[in-house]
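Fold this: Aldehyde dehydrogenase
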Amino acid sequence: MIETSIDSIPNIFQDLRASFNAGKTKSLAWRKKQLEQLFKMCDEQKEVFASAAYADFHRPTAETLLFDCGVIRNECIHVLNHIDEWARDESRSDSLAYATMDKYIHPEPFGICLIIGAWNYPFLLTLSPLVGAIAAGNCVVLKPSELAPNSAAITATMVERYLDTSCIRVVLGAVDQTQTLLKGDINHIFYTGSTSVGKLIMKAAAEKMVPVILECGGKSPVYIADDANIAVTAKRIAWGKTINCGQTCVAPDYILCSKRTETRLIPEIVKAWQSFYTDNPSNSDSYCHIVNDRHFERVKRLIDSTKVVYGGQTDAKQNFIEPTIMTNVNGNDKVMQEEIFGPILPIVTVNNENEAIEFINARPKPLALYVFTSNKNLAKTIINSTSSGSTCVNDVIFQIAPPCLPFGGVGESGIGNYHGKNSFDAFSHTRSVAYSPTWAERLIAKRNPPYTQKKTASLEALTKGHRNWLPIPRLGFWFWAFAALATAIATRVIVRGIKANKWDF
């Protein structure tokens, strides 16, 4: 991977700012064209992307095709189907006091957005936020992770080939390039990665007073009730724990269940892993490896051989770690002190859901929470008693797939969210616009000094809020104006009729 020269970064920002100030990205036609090109890139070059990810960390081709290229393509189509609606001004109405004003929300781009991607899903976590940034009308600097160098390099090559580089640029490099980018002419930062680095990103954003979205990780727990379908539960957890070799931010990190459920669960998980990867996963083309030597050593150190009941084998030459189950784990064990981000599955036994809730709430809020049970009320109890970025019942990871649902963390697991409409909103400033008519000056003039008791009382009565009392709330100024006019006319007609002795009551 050829790194971008630090000296060239200011010129990149200068070019992007010129394009944004010229209004190039505000055109819906430009946005749609770029989204179509991004779709085309991820469709035509999917095999090239897959080869790069395989070279970086033995990632199975299917996982890149499905979880990176496939998801990005679907995100592009979803946004293209709705962008006209999302980019339209949204009218607002409220109390009668402000009914004469024409009020609406105008979504506008921030300007230049910096997207810092992650290595574990090297295309998805760089290009999926790009979909929202383009849709909202921004210029973008992409910074792929240097830990997946082949994937980063091919991203730069394909962006230059398919997209408008006067508005979208890729910067390759490591810490020096990232620090230079954070000091640059940016209006928004989107970061995916560890919580520790996320805090540094937030400090840099605070210095520049720019908004951030931080997609971090955490230890995502799984609670399995005794009434769960164990065969299905085991297969789904086995899948979610070992796709991408567990290097997934929303992977199930550890299990909470009773001893009885643990006894039934372990053989089923083992059976599922053997059906996925055979008895020798190191030779399986469907099993990913750890991304580099440093992460291999970190994950390996989390394995306590005295608590391993399945797996535990490693190979430093291939950065290979076998799918591993550990039991008799407690909250003080090393494996419970950090996000695992690898194929190790610790099981902590609890007696019931109350103990599980207490265990979860005693730790930082996770990016995801998983519950397996046939009792919907139990699932709702756990959801209402805990907090997490997202929750999935009777499955893992799939809650991030529907574009109608936002994805993001809470607390230490992240700030802000994206996907679908939320991606458009994430990269848009919602600008309030109000038109005040000049013909209403006689009404508005009551606000002007000098203040009198009568004027103040009149304004208080006009602007005082009231609870909705009609079945159809906030019917609007013209309804009330018509109703008042009709009442006045009817009253005048009745009064005139009485005076003329034409009405007999």
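The mean pLDDT is 93. DSSP finds 17 helices and 20 strands in the chain.
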